[in-house]
Amino acid sequence: MAVVEELLRAENDGSISFGNYELSEKKKVENFEHNGDLLKVKTFKDITKLECNENFVYESVPGTTVLGFKDTDKGVEFSVEGASDAQITLGLLENTEYSVFVNGSSIGKMSTNLGGKLNLSVELSANGKATVRVEK
């Protein structure tokens, strides 16, 4: 499994990768410029959190590593790795229904609340990683 040693990095395809679930103490990167936005990540073994322009984007408990995170007008997609199963919260459009796929299989439709948050769980203890796609 791979962690993002620099905590937050831009990928050649325009996506970002972030997080290091192997850290025993919380570390953060602030004011990371990507595509005109300012990103901030906080990460360690217990939690990983990403903000864009001071708005909530991603949080996992316990901490995870996220690879190839792409946020489009249709939704988000990324790969996630961790040492154990994780609860993930995504910041999306409020009061919107999304189709959620984990490892290519639909886990159903979910709706965001007034704050635009969508919660899902991923099983990482078996193989340590999963792919997630959430689309309108």
- CATH top level class name: Mainly Beta
Largest sheet: 7 strands, antiparallel
Q: Got a strand count?
A: 13
Helix count equals 0
The strand line-up of the biggest sheet is 1-2-7-8-13-10-11
Level-2 CATH architecture: Sandwich
Strand content: over 45%
CATH topology: Immunoglobulin-like
- Helical residue percent band: under 10%
Protein name: Endosialidase
Organism: Butyrivibrio proteoclasticus (strain ATCC 51982 / DSM 14932 / B316)
What does this 3D model show about the protein?
The chain is mainly beta. The protein contains no helices and 13 strands. The protein has one domain: Immunoglobulin-like (Sandwich). A seven-stranded antiparallel sheet has the order 1-2-7-8-13-10-11, with no helix packed on it. Strand 10 and strand 11 (105-111) form a beta hairpin. The protein is globular and about 35 Å long. It comes from Butyrivibrio proteoclasticus (strain ATCC 51982 / DSM 14932 / B316). This is Endosialidase.
